[in-house]
Amino acid sequence: MEKPRMFTFAGRVIKNLFQKPATTQYPFEPVEYPERMRGHIRIEIENCITCGLCMRSCPSQAIRVDRKAGTWTIERFDCVQCGFCVATCPKKCLFMEKGYTEPDILKKSETFTKPKEEKKEAPVTDSGKPVMDAEKCVYCTLCAKKCPQEAIHVERKEKIWKLDEEKCVECGICAGACPKKAIELKG
């Protein structure tokens, strides 16, 4: 004869009353994140040059950059924490931070605004507009190919190197790509 289901259920209840809980007591005990956890994206907006490389590299299109307004926006719900934006950022102002974003009932975005820069004497920095040294340049066109804004135009035969200062975001990728170190960033 088969055992009635009521006794099976009562046995499980009594067993569970005296066992240790299977879950942690969050928020009373701190969360221990797994070593390979991706986390979420964090930005240091004061170091951002709003070049838009992170936006163009994002496979889920969760990031929007408005260069004129100086804003960086992320749709946390759309972000898949792949880290492409972190790897692409030329100024290394994006980071993968351990932990989850706060849960919410609404799908919302976070917008960060660059602080307004005060006019000061030009500090020595690793940013500025690229300047080409004609004696070192071999007109290989690598700088033009690597420029994310297509701000550099090189004509190899005529030995012409032009910079569209309106398009240039001072990311420095062209200087890093130059095999002859013919490009310097001048602030």
Automatic annotation (TrEMBL):
Keyword set, alphabetical order: 4Fe-4S, Iron, Iron-sulfur, Metal-binding
Keyword match Repressor: no
A molecular-function term among this protein's GO annotations: metal ion binding
This protein's record includes keyword Zinc: no
Domain 4Fe-4S ferredoxin-type, first and last residues per copy: 39-68, 70-99, 128-157, 159-187
Superkingdom of origin organism: Bacteria
Protein name: 4Fe-4S dicluster domain-containing protein
Organism, as annotated: Mediterraneibacter catenae
